[in-house]
Write a structure and sequence with these properties.
Elements lengths: L8 E4 L5 H12 L3 E4 L4 H13 L3 E4 L7 H14 L5 E4 L22 H29 L2 E8 H5 L5 H21 L4 E8 L2 E2 L18 H6 L4 H6 L3 E2 H11 L11 E4 L7
Parallel strand pairs: 1-2, 1-4, 2-3, 4-5, 5-6, 6-9, 7-8
Helix pairs in contact: 1-9, 3-4, 4-6
């Protein structure tokens, strides 16, 4: 299926690795012009280089999306080099830090206040900053697509992830309100909710790419919570996520807005 994304300008936050990298590469394969955002310039450079080597169009767009001025500068650069942003994918996010490597994340009552800010600033304010920066261009062009990545923790709540669940739920409410505000402007705003996703950045444990129910007992137990995962013998992949994001960003989803769509193997059915 031709997704109709050719020559669209796409900004993907957190595009330097994992899910963000897969999203960038799929958009590029569909003929879109991709701005690869990441906090770390070397990551953004690497993914943009990969895309260009494969014949696509991409530029690195390193910036700290918590910084309003940095976001404005990033969007200005993209507009100068690729044109006005047609599609924004809010992928960048952060989970709570564990007490120690391999340990559990703390309960809310034990989480330091400074850790609240880390989670809320990137997940909530980072998303809002990027939306605010691209909306003027979308309004001027008369259309746009915004897709934000959240977690099923936002829709269900998750033990030891109270602040994270709240931050991702804030994105859900914000996105639905934005969809109502800008539907008249032909701007679609949707949300993709994730469960466990395996990717190349994970080198050990049940979410490493080579893990199977046969060689990893933890993964075998995890799959009891993922109905389709039991049948497929795996958790989600970056490709699963990228495909849904690309669809929601395409003209095929022009009548879809304000929706929260789970790409989580049935972990949540709401």
């Amino acid at each position: 299926m031709d997704l109709g994304l050719r020559d669209k300008t796409v900004l993907v936050t957190g595009g330097g690795q994992g899910i963000g990298r897969a999203i960038c590469r799929l958009f590029a394969a569909e003929g879109a012009k991709v701005a690869v955002n990441d906090l770390f310039p070397e990551r953004a450079d690497a993914v943009a280089d990969e895309i260009r080597r494969d014949g696509g169009t991409a530029i690195p767009a390193a910036a700290d999306i918590i910084d309003v001025a940095a976001v404005a500068g990033m969007v200005g650069k993209i507009e100068n080099e690729l044109g006005s942003v047609d599609i924004l994918v809010n992928n960048a996010g952060i989970v709570p830090e564990r007490r120690e490597k391999g340990g559990l994340t703390p309960l809310f009552k034990d989480m330091p206040h400074e850790d609240w800010a880390k989670v809320i600033d990137l997940n909530v304010y980072g998303t809002m900053n990027c939306c605010a920066a691209v909306l003027p261009g979308m309004l001027a062009s008369g259309s746009g697509k915004i897709v934000s990545i959240i977690s099923e923790a936002a829709r269900l709540g998750e033990t030891r992830f109270a602040v994270y669940s709240g931050a991702k739920a804030a994105i859900l409410g914000f996105s639905r309100a934005l969809a109502r505000e800008h539907g008249r402007d032909r701007i679609n705003v949707n949300i993709v909710a994730l469960g466990a996703v395996a990717h190349e950045g994970i080198k050990s444990g049940p979410l490493r790419l080579e893990a199977t129910p046969e060689n990893d007992d933890v993964l075998a137990k995890m799959l009891s919570a993922y109905p389709i995962g039991r049948g497929l013998g795996r958790v989600g992949t970056t490709g699963d996520v990228a495909s849904m994001v690309a669809f929601l960003s395409s003209p095929h989803a022009d009548f879809v807005t304000g929706q929260s769509i789970g790409v989580s193997g049935g972990y949540a059915m709401i």
